[in-house]
């Protein structure tokens, strides 16, 4: 089974970045997720595919703590985080971006990244007026470069193009010291040029940062991941390398039958 292939690939590498065992989530009578087993190595880049309602965002919500799973357990770098609060997971280096944009449109790019950095740093609850630290500012510069927004640092977020706003969301996830990022459809609504930019940005991220990317665009998903998990009706349907997934006729049927172009 493909899951065993994934597990054996990771043998001997120490603690996984993420380990999901039997993770399920009910919403009343609706089973949004069930029996999810996943192993993701540190630094690994994984794509999660699946048609609308397959459970992809719910999977992210259980990993980030936005919703707790109703069954199963989740480990992050060896530690059980199943019921930890969201901010505790963030403190441990877990980050996410949202399917629906969550940016403050009146801030500049630089201020947004700086605030994200403040938000994940130790003294975030300090009531004192924060001193603008050099290291935070240096990080804002290098992150805006990493997401191809060098020329936009002093622009307000509301004036950015849709593609640039999505790049900024990636920037916010990079603030602080992320070890693992969950990207929820970062390519949604992007032009072909912006998609190429996104692929470049993701492929150039520091190698120690692993991620899961939910993506409807197969071309993007297969070019930014080393391994692919395919979901259907709240379950893991199959897993494989991008080549295996691309050539799997069942995947084609479910995926292309899901109404995505
Ligand atoms: N907060 C919630 N309350 C009730 N049902 C929910 C909730 N969140 C998700 N669901 C349901 O769980 C199922 C999985 O939804 P989810 O958003 O995880 O799908 P998805 O794979 O991310 O889909 P999409 O590709 O449309 O983003 C759906 O049937 C959805 O209606
Ligand atoms: Mg979703």
Multimeric organization = single chain
Instruction: Give the beta-strand count.
Output: 10
Q: Provide the structure class.
A: alpha/beta
Number of helices: 10
Please give the radius of gyration in angstroms: 18 Å
CATH topology category name of the largest domain: Rossmann fold
Q: Which kinds of small molecule does this entry bind, naming each only once?
A: adenosine-5'-triphosphate, magnesium ion
CATH class of the largest domain: Alpha Beta
CATH superfamily of the largest domain, by name, is: P-loop containing nucleotide triphosphate hydrolases
Series of H and E elements: HEEEHEEHEHHHEHEHEEHH
Q: What is the mean predicted local confidence, pLDDT?
A: 89
The shape is globular
Distance between the termini: 29 Å
What helical percentage do the residues reach?
25-40%
Judging by the overall fold, what is the CATH architecture of the largest domain?
3-Layer(aba) Sandwich
Strand order in the sheet with the most strands: 6-7-8-3-9-10
Strand content: 15-25%
Q: Please tell me the total number of domains.
A: 2
How does this structure look, described?
By secondary structure, this protein is an alpha/beta fold. It folds into two domains: 1-93 and 179-261, P-loop containing nucleotide triphosphate hydrolases (Rossmann fold), CATH 3.40.50; 104-178, no CATH class. It is 35% helix and 23% strand. The protein is built from ten helices and ten strands. The chain has helices at residues 2-9, 56-64, 86-91, 109-120, 134-146, 162-174, 192-203, 218-223, 242-246, 249-256, and strands at 18-27, 30-40, 45-49, 71-76, 79-80, 94-97, 180-184, 210-214, 227-232, 235-240. Helix 7 (192-203) links the parallel strand 7 and strand 8 (210-214). It is globular. The model is unreliable at 1-13 (pLDDT under 50). Magnesium ion binds at residues 56-57, 99.
């Amino acid at each position: 089974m493909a899951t065993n292939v994934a597990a054996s690939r990771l043998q001997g590498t120490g603690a996984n970045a993420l380990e999901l065992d039997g993770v399920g989530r009910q919403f009343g009578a609706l089973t949004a997720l069930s029996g999810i087993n996943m192993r993701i190595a540190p630094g690994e880049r994984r794509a999660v595919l699946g048609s609308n309602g397959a459970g992809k965002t719910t999977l992210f919500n259980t990993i980030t703590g936005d919703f707790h799973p109703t069954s199963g357990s989740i480990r992050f770098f060896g530690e059980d985080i199943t019921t930890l609060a969201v901010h505790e997971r963030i403190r441990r280096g877990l980050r996410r971006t949202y399917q629906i944009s969550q940016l403050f449109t009146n801030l500049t790019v630089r201020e947004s990244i700086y605030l994200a950095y403040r938000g994940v740093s130790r003294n975030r609850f300090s009531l004192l007026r924060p001193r603008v630290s050099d290291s935070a500012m240096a990080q804002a510069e290098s992150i805006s470069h990493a997401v191809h927004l060098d020329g936009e640092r002093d622009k307000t977020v509301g004036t950015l193009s849709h593609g640039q706003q999505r790049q900024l969301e990636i920037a916010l996830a990079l603030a602080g010291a992320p070890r693992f990022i969950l990207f929820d459809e970062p390519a949604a609504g992007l032009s072909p040029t912006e998609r190429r930019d996104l692929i470049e940005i993701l492929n150039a991220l520091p190698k120690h940062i692993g991620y899961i990317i939910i993506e409807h665009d197969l071309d993007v998903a297969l070019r930014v991941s080393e391994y692919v998990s395919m979901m259907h009706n709240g379950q893991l349907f199959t897993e494989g390398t991008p080549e295996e997934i691309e050539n799997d006729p069942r995947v084609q049927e479910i995926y292309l039958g899901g109404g995505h172009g």
